[in-house]
Amino acid sequence: MADPEKLFADPEKLFKVDVVTPNGMIYSHRGSIVDVRAIDGERSILYNHVPLLTPLVISEVKVKRSREMNSRIDHIAISGGYIEFSDNVATIIADSAERARNIDVSRAQAAKERAEKRLKEAREKHDERTEKRAAVALRRALNRISVYNTRGH
């Protein structure tokens, strides 16, 4: 007998996309394509993609909401994490994530400047541990600014 879930498969080939952080659900919609940056390169996930679990880097996640040409694309800044895809559900688990529309760009700019200052000071003191932490903070701030700027004002 056919699986009842398969009988009512989405004719538009949309699947569920969730972005979760320790603070809860940041994003939950249906999409036709999810573009992510894994540690080994770019990935595009479509309906019925093979099951997958892979680590992600600090980057932008793009979710195309439908198959139409002028479909809305949601932009989300993530601080790394993982994507798991199975049974047409994409779940992204990240330490932090922010939808482009919710990014406070002035706060992100201030974080960028603080991180640049800490990075410079750590390099002068040859403090590798602080330098690595500042470099990550800088990448996160730059990612938030970039995602904010690409959201299509």
From TrEMBL:
<feature type="domain" description="ATP synthase epsilon subunit C-terminal">
    <location>
        <begin position="102"/>
        <end position="147"/>
    </location>
</feature>
<dbReference type="GO" id="GO:0005886">
    <property type="term" value="C:plasma membrane"/>
</dbReference>
<keyword id="KW-0813">Transport</keyword>
<keyword id="KW-0406">Ion transport</keyword>
<comment type="function">
    <text>Produces ATP from ADP in the presence of a proton gradient across the membrane.</text>
</comment>
<keyword id="KW-0375">Hydrogen ion transport</keyword>
<comment type="subunit">
    <text>F-type ATPases have 2 components, CF(1) - the catalytic core - and CF(0) - the membrane proton channel. CF(1) has five subunits: alpha(3), beta(3), gamma(1), delta(1), epsilon(1). CF(0) has three main subunits: a, b and c.</text>
</comment>
<dbReference type="Pfam" id="PF02823">
    <property type="entry name" value="ATP-synt_DE_N"/>
</dbReference>
<dbReference type="InterPro" id="IPR036771">
    <property type="entry name" value="ATPsynth_dsu/esu_N"/>
</dbReference>
<dbReference type="GO" id="GO:0045259">
    <property type="term" value="C:proton-transporting ATP synthase complex"/>
</dbReference>
<keyword id="KW-1003">Cell membrane</keyword>
<keyword id="KW-0139">CF(1)</keyword>
<keyword id="KW-0175">Coiled coil</keyword>
<dbReference type="Pfam" id="PF00401">
    <property type="entry name" value="ATP-synt_DE"/>
</dbReference>
<keyword id="KW-0066">ATP synthesis</keyword>
<dbReference type="InterPro" id="IPR036794">
    <property type="entry name" value="ATP_F1_dsu/esu_C_sf"/>
</dbReference>
<keyword id="KW-0472">Membrane</keyword>
<feature type="domain" description="ATP synthase F1 complex delta/epsilon subunit N-terminal">
    <location>
        <begin position="15"/>
        <end position="97"/>
    </location>
</feature>
<dbReference type="InterPro" id="IPR020547">
    <property type="entry name" value="ATP_synth_F1_esu_C"/>
</dbReference>
<dbReference type="GO" id="GO:0005524">
    <property type="term" value="F:ATP binding"/>
</dbReference>
<comment type="similarity">
    <text>Belongs to the ATPase epsilon chain family.</text>
</comment>
<dbReference type="GO" id="GO:0046933">
    <property type="term" value="F:proton-transporting ATP synthase activity, rotational mechanism"/>
</dbReference>
<feature type="coiled-coil region">
    <location>
        <begin position="105"/>
        <end position="132"/>
    </location>
</feature>
<dbReference type="InterPro" id="IPR020546">
    <property type="entry name" value="ATP_synth_F1_dsu/esu_N"/>
</dbReference>
<dbReference type="InterPro" id="IPR001469">
    <property type="entry name" value="ATP_synth_F1_dsu/esu"/>
</dbReference>
<protein>
    <recommendedName>
        <fullName>ATP synthase epsilon chain</fullName>
    </recommendedName>
</protein>
